[in-house]
Amino acid sequence: MEKDAKTHALEEMQKLLKEEAEKRHKQIMRREVPEDRSLTNALMTLTRQELDDIRYNVGLSGTSNLNKSELVEKLVPSIVDFARSWFVSIVDEQYQALRHVSQMDGVSTEFRTDEVRLDYFQSLGILISGAYKNKPAWYMPTEILEEFRRLDSGSFTKAVGANTDVLRIASGILFYYGVLDYDQLFAKVKPFLEVDEDNFKFVDFMGVMLNGACWQHNVVTGEKLMHYYTVMAPEELYNSVKDTDLPYAKLSYTKVYDAGEENYIEATPAYKTLAQFFMNAYEMDVLRAANVVGEITIVFQNGGKMKDVLKYIDTLGTPKVSEEEHAIAPLLIAFHNSLRLWSLKGHTSEEIMSGKMDIPDDNVVSLDEHRRKKIGRNDPCPCGSGKKYKNCCLRKED
């Protein structure tokens, strides 16, 4: 009996993941952890390309004519100096990983081999991978281990916590605003922090953000701008909103902090209604429905029109119940109008049209209500503007 396409696709994905895991395992195991784990010995196990990556990241120049041994000799003091300043910018997950290695006397075989973020540590010379007692391992070169242990204290842990809050709050702000320049973002982060302004300077903020963006994917750094990872054209978005008179939406600490979580979803009533529609009409599980609504969010946030969303929905196949396809338009309109849009500086279309900053839950129409009623051209628009559908959101869709 021939396997269906879904099963075949799943098997192919599992095969690819297995091959990638095996490749990763071989990559780590191709070199041994040296018995003497000095920084010099650790660097000598790396390829020239890996050394050049470290050289670039720690800001060492004028080494193009050096051989490997000469390059390593130049790199050692540069990496140690870099580590001293870099440690003060780390966030909690990084701290926990490094502290674990420190507690394991500098070498650990307990990390998962698919934890690719550890490669970031290696690109700085902070941790190096290799085979240790026939197991894939990560180790901290002796000089780096000494620096870390010298810093590790109660006050350092407190500073790490503050860094973690800075990154999370900045991520949450960008979730709602999309893109800001560094000065704007710094100014908007500060009011949410319980820090003495004299002890929290722009250079410290930039260190945390540049480091954090290399560690987690929520935020992306550019030359002058920082943006949320789902923004497709950050410079275009920034230029389109920077000179508008509309003020940025006022956000509460709770809203910003929650949105700073990686892969955050703002589960508004309109979001839940739309996700429920896909679960019912297309027989999707919760995760699949959430992914679909997430893709729709990205389209809307990046200036996509209703026709772009409907084109995407067409790729999902035919709804299990034919009449369900007639219910999707009003649900999409209600969802779009409830989104805090980047193009509106974090305001929703409902707020702009009504002049109100708060959105009452009863503005969101339930799935059952939409199923019972198809919207006519002369019916009131479901967005709550008070206009006829043909003179409001129908025109926007066209």
Q: What is the share of helical residues?
A: 40-55%
Largest sheet: 3 strands, antiparallel
| Uncertain regions spanning at least 5 consecutive residues | 357-374
Shape: globular
Number of strands: 6
Q: How are the SSEs ordered, and which strands pair?
A:
Blueprint: H1 5-29, H2 39-44, H3 48-57, H4 68-86, H5 92-103, E1 107-108, H6 118-122, E2 128-132, E3 135-139, H7 142-151, H8 154-177, E4 179-181, H9 182-189, H10 202-215, E5 219-221, E6 225-228, H11 234-241, H12 253-259, H13 269-281, H14 286-301, H15 306-314, H16 328-338, H17 349-354, H18 367-372, H19 393-397
Antiparallel strand pairs: 1-3, 2-3, 4-6, 5-6
Helix pairs in contact: 3-4, 4-7, 8-9, 8-10, 8-12, 13-14, 13-16, 14-15
